Fold this sequence. Notes:
The chain has 475 residues and is an alpha/beta fold. 31% of the residues lie in helices and 16% in strands. The chain has helices at residues 24-27, 40-47, 57-60, 68-76, 80-87, 94-100, 122-135, 159-170, 187-190, 199-211, 228-233, 264-273, 298-309, 330-339, 407-410, 442-445, 450-468, and strands spanning 151-155, 174-178, 215-217, 238-241, 247-248, 261-263, 290-294, 314-319, 342-345, 347-354, 360-373, 379-383, 389-392, 395-398, 402-403, 437-439. The strands form 4 sheets. Strands 3-2-1-4-16 form a 5-stranded parallel β-sheet. The protein has a 5-stranded parallel β-sheet with strand order 6-14-7-8-9. Strands 10, 11, 12 and 13 form a 4-stranded antiparallel β-sheet that branches. Helix 2 packs across helix 4 (68-76), helix 4 runs antiparallel to helix 5 (80-87) and helix 4 packs across helix 7 (122-135).
Amino acid sequence: MSEPxxxxxxxERPPRQxxxxxxxxxxxxxxDEVPYGLTPDQARLEASRCxxxxxxxxxxxxxxxxxxxxxxxxxxxxxxxxxxxxxxxQTTLPAVCGRVCPQEDQCEKTCVLAxxxxxxxxxxxxxxxxxxxxxxxxxxxxxxxxxxxxxVAVVGSGPAGITAAFELAKLGHNVTMFEAFHKTGGVxxxxxxxxRLPKAIVQRDVDTLRKMGVEILTNYVVGKLDTVDQxxxxxxxxxxxxxxxxxxxxxxxxxxxxxxxxSANEFLTRTNLMKAYxxxxxxxxxKATRAVVFGGGNVAMDSARTALRLGAxxxxxxxxxxxxxMPARIEEIHHAEQEGVRFEFLVAPTEIFGDDKGWVRSVRxxxxxxxxxxxxxxxxxxxxxxxxxxxxxxxIIVAIGNGPNPLVPQTTxxxxxxxxGNIVADEATGQTSKRGVFAGGDIVTGAATVIKxxxxxxxxxxxxxxxxxxxxxxP
Length: 475
């Protein structure tokens, strides 16, 4: 009996590609984007790592269900135009998501390769395809259905609102978007720094909406100029509320009233939306010598890295747990460490002190130890008696989370909310307690990710379409 033919050697897959980026000592002095993006050769090499699974778990991990193997296969084949077209079948903001979404906790987490090594760099490849389209100066406008004659008001222009408007416009509805600020984009423009998400990218996506026929009204505060009820009475057949979580939380400790203590919302809005970092803008912002940031999420990282770029000599992040429990993305923590942000773990502030002119001069802290897990599943921080110490600083940025924007719920009496002020809406459809009113994103869930807000906007748009066309009963 003959010996079986030897198996051919298993083809080794290339390692995960590293994205080139600005050196830390250079980027800390500018607000230019930190990563440069993959080169075409890198992108094709990274795309070749994809196994093209018949049942891709990565798609299940994506809140907007992108055909991930499909768009990656086009990159591997060198057909970059087809790749971005495939992406835009399911997502409105690929250039945004490729930069700021936590792929490591979503699509990349469920990649088969992650079981024994590094997953495919799905986020890098998404960014590459979207940037390719931008570099060519082209915009892929999807086919628009015939006009339905129905009007929809979209309140808020963050990721949930942009996605809802995009999907509704594709379906032939007449869409008007209302934005309270003078710039469209919501948290994408006021909350995320230029070095992580260039605002020209957001503007390009907003321009796409205009090309699709969406009317955009800025400086328009729904709840003041018009209420939701007035919009419905004035000819809108449905309203989508995507006003986000823009109400900053504070610690409620003595001394928070001193000058130099800011919410991360105010600090980042002044810097990002109102361009305080640019010499040709008059937006005032305090440039600290020794800045302290309370918090451990992405907003805390953004605040600390921004303070460094504004000229602070020292920037500290004070966090009440350890590095292992920080909710910020690993990449953002890594970049902050590279740039010189210092971390004080297992520390909680208890009181802020000011000088005789009313400016912050220090914060009293207490050291913590980790106890039993709390509702978040993380170990609960427990104060260590007698461990108080004083930490000198001349600026404090509070980045411990945000609550829902209260204006629309407060001016819409029959809109059901939770005890925290979030709008109660069906998870799958966005339907609220009020007929013709839908909601999604952070105003419903509390502060979450860009891609989850997009998923909510997309689901709500589909439900609004069914409602307008009489496919389902009234909510």
